[in-house]
Amino acid sequence: MSDRPAVVYLTGWCRSGTTLIGNLIGELPGALHVGELRYLWRHGVLGDGTNDTCGCGTRIADCPLWSAVLRRLGAPDGVPDLLERQQRLLRTRHVGARLAAIPATIAARRDLERLYGAIAAEAGARIIVDSGKFPAEAATVCGSDRVRPYVLHVLRDPRAVAESWRRPKAYIPAMSACRSTAYWVAFQQASARVGRAFPGRYQRLRYEDFAAAPADTLGAVLAGWGLAAAAPVTADGTAVLSPNHTVTGNPDRLRTGPVTIRPDERWRTTSPRTTRYAAGLLAAPWLHRYGYRLTGGADRGAGVRSDAGTS
To answer: Which of 78, 176, 225, 303 has its CA 20 to 30 A from that of 28?
Structure first.
């Protein structure tokens, strides 16, 4: 076993099940789900983000793990520079540049490597799950030789995603169907581009397939990378979630105890027609590609895919 930690980076667009999947992988022995790690500096150091609660229930700055990680990294010194590089180098539009071995990519990669290394050292983790969902970060870490990077591209029907965004959720405000779907399209395209560049490190998983058979689909992902022989969920979709150390993410990250994973198709009846039509029309060119139907009928099962397609 390599002494380099494995980093499973979850990419895609929000409200697609990445928090639950991250928490499940975090239940593996030696694994740690850190949530949307990108926001550690703003939430844990500057305190000006949307939420400063760690998944363990304490403030990030007071959490024993994160306070130790931040001390190891010398925070708050250098945090303004880290945030500036994030904005300048690691947004979705920067995926192409981060796939190139240029000085800016190397600088961004070093930031991530230092952070993942500090987490591995303080937590004793051999698997770090980062559900940041920024394809540019996935592209950057894939070129690392200091961690073992893997990218799991998670996606969900954009109409279901738009319905989820229609209502605010705790510290996350609502978003229009048009805006949500525009992000959905951009994030799928960028994530697939990472997959084409690093096919051996990339797998794609539809939330609908995961929810229908979580043990089989997530188990196949983990086994494909040699991270675990099986997923920490029973054949009937039951899992037990422990407290975690997620920096931020969907408020459901704070849920612990037994959970039962089941398909959720409520959006088909609860979503207003305007929401469904707006999301469906904007994403129409990509629906068939990912196994979704534009009108009526059941979706085509896609399971776990290791190819990035042509999107």
So the answer is: 303
Note if the bond before 272 is cis, omega within 30 degrees: no
What CATH number does domain 6-295 carry, 3.30.300.30, 1.10.510.10, 3.40.50.300, 3.90.79.10? 3.40.50.300
d(CA 15, CA 105): 28
pLDDT band of residue 297 (cuts 50, 70, 90) is low
Q: Do residues 50 and 169 lie in contact, with contact meaning Cβ atoms separated by under 8 Å?
A: no
Asked if residue 308 has pLDDT above 90, the reply is no
Distance CA 54, CA 247 (A): 5
Q: Classify burial at 9, counting beta carbons within 10 Å of its beta carbon; exposed 0-12, middle 13-18, buried 19 or more.
A: buried
Q: Which helix (H) or strand (E) segment is 267 a member of?
A: helix 267-270
Evaluate if residue 116 carries a pLDDT over 60.
yes
Residue 249 is given by DSSP the state S
Q: Give the torsion sign (CA, 135, 13, 249, 88).
A: positive
| 38 CB burial (10 A radius; 0-12, 13-18, 19+) | buried
Residue 297 CA: distances (Å) to CA of 16, 207, 291, 293, 300: 21, 18, 12, 7, 9
Tell me if 42 sits within 8 A of 29, measured CB to CB.
no
pLDDT of 296 higher than 70: no
- What stretch of H or E contains 304? strand 304-305
> Strand 202-206 to strand 304-305: parallel, antiparallel, or no bridges (unpaired)?
antiparallel
| DSSP string for residues in 89-126 | H-SGGGHHHHTS--HHHHHHHHHHHHHHHHHHHHHT-S
